[in-house]
Specification:
With 242 residues, the chain is an alpha+beta fold. Helices cover 38% and strands 23% of the residues.
């Protein structure tokens, strides 16, 4: 990252598939955007998957992770000023003006052009009402082993009894642990994990039918039903709703 001299630090990162920046926070506001590819950003309140049509405003002091399941060019601005009043992570619409402006701000600019470009930024920050998928992670050794395996293969359909034979616990014990540690039943937790993975596929252009199969649904309609129940909208509208 490099400082512009006007309270904004800028940076570009080429993320390889599977790249993940672990939990961290900044003492400045951050605007993260994928110029191509898709970003996955998690906070304590949920997970967002962001194609090039969306960016995420992350207020100063909010702990988060950032990663990508495919090759992605990330543009990042750290803003040391009260540019906007949002105090919670906020999805920003990236239209035909904001995208090129973010790329321009992350390039090498003289002081005059940079100052004029930065003056446009606030006028182009247009929030989009997009809810994250809340996915609390389990905490104990046995449930974490199950979670890690499902993150690798969300289509894995083993029951808690079958997982119990792998990790050495009864299905009743595992059900109790998932409920206590995540606030969700195992089936609902796995559904949210699958949908989080599905968002990355959809953002990368994978069809709804192919995505449904890859994350463990027998039919596209079952996947769409679970998606709508969790997010309040359909996969087709999730990234395009105004």
């Amino acid at each position: 990252m490099s400082r512009t001299g006007h309270g904004i630090w800028v940076g570009s990162h080429s993320l390889l598939p599977g790249t993940r920046f672990d939990w961290h926070e900044h003492d400045a506001h951050q605007l993260n955007w994928a110029e191509d590819g898709a970003l996955t950003i998690g906070t304590a309140t949920g997970t967002w998957v962001l194609p090039p049509t969306r960016a995420l405003w992350i207020p100063a002091g909010v702990r988060h992770t950032t990663g990508s399941s495919r090759s992605t060019k990330m543009r990042s601005l750290l803003i040391h000023s009260d540019l906007v009043p949002w105090t919670v992570p906020t999805v920003i619409r990236v239209g035909p003006l904001l995208g090129p402006l973010l790329s321009y701000l992350c390039s090498s600019l003289a002081a005059g052009p940079r100052s004029r470009a930065e003056a446009l930024l606030q006028d182009l920050l247009d929030p989009v009402p997009t809810a994250p998928i809340e996915l609390p992670m389990p905490q104990s050794d046995r449930t974490l082993r199950i979670a890690a395996a499902l993150r690798i293969d969300p289509a894995d359909g083993r029951t808690l009894a079958e997982w119990g034979r792998v990790v050495g616990a009864s299905s009743r014990t595992l059900a109790r642990l998932f409920g206590a540690e995540t606030g969700l039943g195992f089936a609902e937790w796995r559904t949210r994990l699958r949908l989080t993975h599905a968002l990355g596929l959809l953002a990368g252009g994978t069809s709804v039918a192919a995505t449904a199969h890859l994350v463990g649904y027998s039919t596209p309609s079952a996947f769409v039903s679970a998606f709508r129940r969790t997010t309040g909208t359909s996969p087709a509208r999730y990234f395009t709703a105004e």
